[in-house]
Amino acid sequence: MPSRTTELLLEDIIHASDKILMYTRGMSYYDFSADDKTIDAVVRNIEIISEAADKISSDYKTAHPEIDWSNIVNYANRTVLDTSIINHEMAWKIREEDVSTLLEQASALSNENRR
């Protein structure tokens, strides 16, 4: 299977970040933690973000230190503790503290790559 380009991986990060924000719009942590479907959707998109970030080349990551790549790569490990144990608080923390900024940063890089 051919590897995906950096542009496609950035698009994966953008789309997954956007979905997390869309799925949780208007929710409190209490609402989120009581909604298994939303938890599943958010955690799946966190996994997509982590996997995409992990596949971006080291050279590209070094050229763009404004993004905390190592933190992003570890998102999934911090939210999925075991095959059936999800850290709801960590998933919500990523949503609250990181996703909006990541969406902006990845969008800026994607736009820069198109020029």
Layout of SSEs?
Elements: H1 6-24, H2 29-33, H3 36-55, H4 58-63, H5 69-73, H6 75-79, E1 80-82, E2 85-86, H7 88-114
Helix pairs in contact: 1-3, 1-7
Outline the structure in words.
The protein has one domain (6-114). Helix content is 76%, strand content 4%. The protein is built from seven helices and two strands, in the order H-H-H-H-H-H-E-E-H. The chain has helices spanning 6-24, 29-33, 36-55, 58-63, 69-73, 75-79, 88-114; strands at residues 80-82, 85-86. It has a two-stranded antiparallel ribbon with strand order 1-2.
Mean pLDDT: 92
SSE arrangement, N to C: HHHHHHEEH
SSE-based structural type: mainly alpha
Give start-end ranges of low-pLDDT stretches. none
How far is it from the N-terminal to the C-terminal residue, by CA? 28 Å
Count structural domains: 1
Q: Helical proportion?
A: over 70%
Concise synopsis of the structure shown:
The chain is mainly alpha-helical and 115 residues long. It has helices at residues 6-24, 29-33, 36-55, 58-63, 69-73, 75-79, 88-114, and strands spanning 80-82, 85-86.
Keywords:
single chain, 115 residues, mainly alpha
